[in-house]
Amino acid sequence: MAIKNIIFDLGGILINLDFDKTINEFDRLGFKEMEKFFGLGKAADFVEDYEVGKINDEQFIHAVRSLTNIQADDEQIVYAWNALLLDFPEERIGLLQQLAKKYRLFLFSNTNALHLAHFGALFQQQFGFSLNSLFEKAYYSHTINQRKPYTEAFEWILNDAKIDAAETLFIDDALNNIEGARMVGLHTRYVPKGQTIMEINWEALEP
User: Fold this and answer.
1) I need a surface site. Which of 5, 105, 111, 177 has the fewest CB within 10 A?
2) How far apart are CA 174 and CA 13, in angstroms?
3) Which residues have a Cβ under 8 Å from the Cβ of 174 and sit 6 or more positions away?
4) What is the DSSP track for 81-138?
5) How far apart are the C-alpha atoms of 148 and 35, rounded to whole Å?
6) CA distances from 84 to 12, 81, 137, 204 (A)
């Protein structure tokens, strides 16, 4: 069955990330073990709670301060938390604009309110229009209370978007998310470290 829809991950797929920057910022604030709690494809319980909207910004910052025992103000913690978010390569955004002429495009990101505000502003500043405007609909884990790699999250999005898994491609850079997507029948494309969506043979997906 031909691909009609594409669901994109955000971090590492559309925006460049550097987890070491956040780890290093927390290290500078006095917490040496952040990498145990947060990184590609992993998250501590309180981070997962934040990413599915169970706790708000204030509660998250309190949880970070309690975990780390750092003497840092809210602004320093937010800065460290957002440090991993880098830039949106222009060629990737141009590719999405071209793909939108042939496919229904969606976004599904495990993220949180602080990150959304930050990368949303980065994108707006870089391109002059909203990130969400690239997609028929953007799904953020903390606003839909659903998170990858859980099959319930993918099923919820398929139902909400009214799209067929057999006609939909999901693209992500975390293998556990790819595995979750496959379990609900989605076509998948794993983008390993060192590769980008620019290297996908998009012509082979012709609808």
Assistant:
1) 105
2) 10
3) 9, 12, 40, 41, 148, 149
4) HHTTB----HHHHHHHHHHTTTSEEEEEE---HHHHHHHHHHHHHHHSS-GGGGSSEE
5) 20
6) 11, 7, 25, 33
pTM above 0.90, yes or no: yes
CA distance 134 to 142: 20
Residue 136, φ and ψ in degrees, nearest 5: -60, -40
Tell me the fold of 5-16+86-205: Rossmann fold (3.40.50)
Assess contact for 11 and 72: CB atoms under 8 A: no
Q: How far apart are CA 114 and CA 78, in angstroms?
A: 7
Other beta carbons within 10 Å of 195 = 11
**CATH 3.30.1360.40 correct for 19-82:** no
* CA dihedral (147, 96, 132, 74) positive or negative: positive
* pLDDT tens digit sequence for 40-84: 555 568 888 999 999 999 999 998 988 888 889 999 999 999 999
Query: CA gyration radius for the chain?
Result: 17
Q: Give the DSSP letter of residue 2.
A: -
Domain boundaries, the chain: 5-16+86-205, 19-82
- Written as six digits, the tokens of 81 are 């938390």
Alpha-carbon gap, residue 23 to 30, rounded angstroms: 11
